[in-house]
Amino acid sequence: MRIQSPDHPYNVLFLCTGNSARSIFGEAILKRIGKGRFNAYSAGSGPKNAVNSHTLALLNRLGFPTDDLRSKSWNEFVKSGSPDLDFIFTVCDNAANEVCPAWPGQPITAHWGVPDPAAVMGSEIGIEAAFREAFMTLQRRIELFAALPVKSLDRMSLKKKLDDIGHADVAKTDS
């Protein structure tokens, strides 16, 4: 992991299989919460090639910029010229169980599984509720991550704290 400085914020990648909902939420949330300290990216092992319309609708309602969000392959982050990653968070169980590329720089990884809101069937109200729940879970986890004293923790302690964040039941927490 690189040492953070004002000229070199930490680079964070959120991974999911389709890169259309949860990982997109992670990217958008960290771009807002971690501005200046973190650069946020998202990708998928099998990207859908489009961001889910419910994802975009919720982010737009909450005032998040969405123009730069796109569904993309994780291969973009292993080729020459891609950002050196410091942290990688898998946000779906499928991506966590896949064989990932060899990430340059040995980023710290953690699994922050969140149920897939795009898999929810039923009424529009139920679907929207699933997207809100996924968003709130990721927002709380990212708030906890952004509040960590990253520079003062050794790699093993930081990894433990990141794993703990992924296991915490944060969806029910008031924001």
Describe this structure as you would to a colleague:
The protein has helices at 22-33, 53-61, 93-97, 124-146, 155-167, and strands at 10-16, 38-44, 87-90, 108-111. It is globular. The protein is an alpha/beta fold. The protein has five helices and four strands, in the order βαβαβαβαα. Strand 1, helix 1 and strand 2 form a beta-alpha-beta unit. The protein has one domain (10-166): Rossmann fold (3-Layer(aba) Sandwich). The two termini are 30 Å apart.
At the first level of CATH, what is the class? Answer: Alpha Beta
CATH superfamily: Response regulator
The 3D shape can be described as globular
What is the rounded distance between the termini?
30 Å
Write down the secondary-structure element order. Answer: EHEHEHEHH
The percent range for helix content is 25-40%
For the secondary structure, the number of strands is 4
* Secondary structure tally, helices: 5
